[in-house]
Amino acid sequence: MRLFRKKRIPGGLTREAALNCVPVKNSAVEEMRLENGTVRLCYPLQIKPWLAELRRRFGPPQGDAPQKQLELDELGTLTWDLMDGHLRFAEIVQRFSRQTRVHPKEAEAAVAQFIRALGKRGLIGLKPTD
Question: Which of 3, 21, 44, 51 is within CB 3.0–4.6 Å of 65 for a Cys-Cys bond?
Answer without folding.
Answer: 44
